[in-house]
Amino acid sequence: MVDIRPFKAVRYSRKAGNLDNLITQPYDKIDAEMQKEYYQKSPYNCCRLILPMEENKYQAARQRVEQWLKEGIIAKDKAPAVFISRQQFSLDGEECERTGLIAAMRLYAYSENMVFPHEGTYEAPKADRLNMLRAVQKDLEPVFVIYSDPERKTLTLLQQVAKSKPTIQVTDSLQVKHKVWRVTDPEKIRQLQTELSGKTVVITDGHHRYASALAYRDEMRSKSDWTGDSAFNFHMCYMVPIQDEGLTVLPTHRLLKEFKLTNQALQDLRRLFDVSEINPTVEALENFLKTNRNEHAFCVYVGLKAYGLTLKHDKRVYDFVSAHVSKETKIFDVVILRDIVFKQILKTGKLNMDENILYERWTKVAVDKVNSGEASIAFLVNPISAKTVADIAQQHELLPEKSTDFYPKMVSGLMMMDVSPSEKL
């Protein structure tokens, strides 16, 4: 069963200043320019913990946590609680809101079939986050997970609590409004624990953090006396029902830096796809994808020209695709793009993030990067639904890296969780 617990959150006090100047996007979404901007916002900005600029970033983060606790910049709540967290945001001209639960969730090895990843992980980010955990002994950022609630029982409980005045209100740099309610009522917590106990969860964001937390847990167990209530057996998680109407997955468009769409490549594409030249505008590209949402469809943007691609309904084409795409993920658009278009037709070989492939959520930004010469080709895709992500993951299948973009991201700096050896839940 999924075991969730209330915890004594470590949060910014009023001494730290305006919370708008303290929160950040997750560490893996912060580029060098954003890092500088966050540093300039406040001497207590959360970026100074999750992604310090200093050469010895782990030591810098540890020293800051210790100093800020001593000075009262951050402080641990006296009573344990769970938190209801809601994000209100605009997307394609519509107002949306997503509501979830922040709680300490027990860590489970993937082999226990309680927590499922949907993407693979890389050794360098795992080592980085493990070193940070060792240094600060705090969960600095939540892992974002989803679960199924077809009877909407947890949704109802979350929405009931969210009718009161929130404990925290803040707007992030993307103009997403965050509201947080602190819940200490034992009966409400017990109800949530009961409803979630029979669930399994799928990680949407935070695969490296989760893997690092498992490694940290095992290290702590080997070094100290521990019980099942030791905090390092848990990780702070943001948990959202799949049935929440605001649970939004954006596409992750692929941009290649060193490859050209030659006449030969276009000819090879025509053997597998119906290819049509379309107006090279953002509106036309997005309309093509929406119109062909139920097809295996892509847009290719090369600057002055753009093409719409839909996979042909031909047994020979499906046989060819099925023989070459990754078996573990069947025939998904991002898999066809990677294994057929990139590897078979463009002969890209291995693609390394930021070196020869870029990922972008917004069509306009992808187009601008091609126009500016930062990339040579943009391949635009439709998003994968949250339910599909969950279904794939629970079949022990993994999507290619950067297949999903659950939007908006949970900001960092709202709260932290103590996972030092002495902390109990």
Q: Can you put this structure into words, describing what you see?
A:
- The protein has 425 residues and is an alpha+beta fold.
- It folds into two domains: 4-248 and 407-418, no CATH class; 252-382, no CATH class.
- It has helices spanning 32-41, 47-50, 57-71, 123-136, 153-161, 186-196, 207-223, 263-272, 282-291, 315-324, 333-345, 363-371, 386-393, and strands at residues 4-5, 9-12, 74-76, 82-91, 94-106, 115-116, 138-139, 143-147, 168-171, 177-183, 201-205, 234-241, 248-250, 253-256, 273-278, 297-301, 306-311, 357-360, 377-380, 405-407, 416-418.
- Strand 4 and strand 5 form a beta hairpin.
- The radius of gyration is 23 Å and the shape is globular.
- Secondary-structure-derived class: alpha+beta
The largest sheet is: 9 strands, mixed
| Shape assignment | globular
Question: Mean pLDDT score, rounded?
Answer: 94
Determine the fraction of residues in helical runs and give it as a percent range.
Answer: 25-40%
Number of strands: 21
Could you tell me the radius of gyration in angstroms? 23 Å
Number of domains: 2
Terminal residue distance: 17 Å
The unreliable regions are none
Number of helices: 13
**Percent in strands:** 15-25%
Write a concise synopsis of the structure shown.
The chain is α+β, with helices and mostly antiparallel strands. It is built from 13 helices and 21 strands.
